[in-house]
Amino acid sequence: MVVSQLRMEMSRALYETWVQPLRPLTYENGSFVLSAANPYAREWVENRLGSRITRLLEGLYNQPVNLELRVANAFFDSGVGLAEAVTDLFPVAESPASENKKRAPSKSLQPSRKVMLQRAYGSERAGVIQPERGMFVTLYFFYQWLPLLGHSAATAILAARSMCYWNPLTGDLRNVIETDMSELARRAAVSLRTVKDVLNQDLVRKYFIRYRVRRMMTPNGVRTAGISLQVRMDDPLTPEDQAAFNISEDDWYLPEFDDPKRQERGD
User: What crossing angle do the helices spanning 2-9 and 82-89 adopt, rounded to 10°?
Assistant: First the structure.
């Protein structure tokens, strides 16, 4: 969990340079020991990540943790990555038969996955809410775009984004999805007619959501099967700011989403 959190907070280059080479050695009596490849790496992690890693570990164990970093090249040369080593230290529960075939880690390193999740969430209530699953909304969108779009359009855009995936730190992106208007309406808590109107608004269509109607042939003729959406996951400049800063926001969409109105008419 600590590794995953750091991966989201750091750039890929920093993560792969400083976090990925770290190796967990022991956790005993409240002291968590990590090894670094060399003294420079140990110093860098201690100065820049030490307090953050300590806070994350304390959140997991629900008690004070003393983080210690050592230089241990022999362990570094073993070729076992931090993620793999953490899996060894905190294994997912397995069947008794497979468990007997493996050397069991010490009890101090073997909290159950369920307990770890409870500690990470902090409470049963937070476990239901899952606060780690969030969607980033800029104040720019709230203050600049909301007055232009209106609440229904803004809600539909956020609902469409919730069906996509974007990690700006790693560059991972999935912004083209297959769905239907009724599902988008359900997620946005608006009517189907409102969704149709929103998808045809000039500002929405130009800067946030493009769609294609999917049609299929049936014995009774052509039937609408749903829609394909391409969703812009970052916030563009408003038309006013584009003019003020001389920055264009055109052509963010794929060519196949060029003219949704024409496709809606069936031209």
Answer: 150
The H-assigned helical ranges of the chain are 2-9, 12-14, 39-48, 50-61, 73-76, 82-89, 96-100, 113-121, 124-129, 139-140, 146-149, 151-162, 181-188, 192-199, 202-207, 239-245, 260-265
Q: pLDDT tens for residues 183-214? A: 999 999 999 999 999 999 999 999 999 999 98
Q: How many residues does the chain have?
A: 267
In 3D space, the residue among 28, 27, 1 whose CA is nearest the CA of residue 118 turns out to be 1
Closest CA to 135 of 104, 152, 157: 157
- Bridge partners (DSSP) listed for residue 214: 226
Pairing of strands 165-167, 172-174: antiparallel
What is the rounded radius of gyration, in angstroms, for the C-alpha atoms of the chain?
Answer: 25
The span from the CA of 15 to the CA of 11, in Å, is 6
Element (H, E) at 166: strand 165-167
Q: CA separation (Å) from 126 to 35, 134, 253? A: 33, 13, 37
Q: Look at residues 13, 74, 2 and name the one whose alpha carbon lies nearest to residue 38.
A: 74
Taken in order 179, 180, 183, 184, is the CA torsion positive or negative? positive
CB atoms within 10 A of CB 199: 23
Chain segment 94-140, per-residue pLDDT in tens: 434 444 444 444 444 444 555 555 455 556 677 677 766 778 899 99
d(CA 215, CA 221): 10
Q: What is the rounded CA–CA span in Å between residue 158 and residue 166?
A: 13
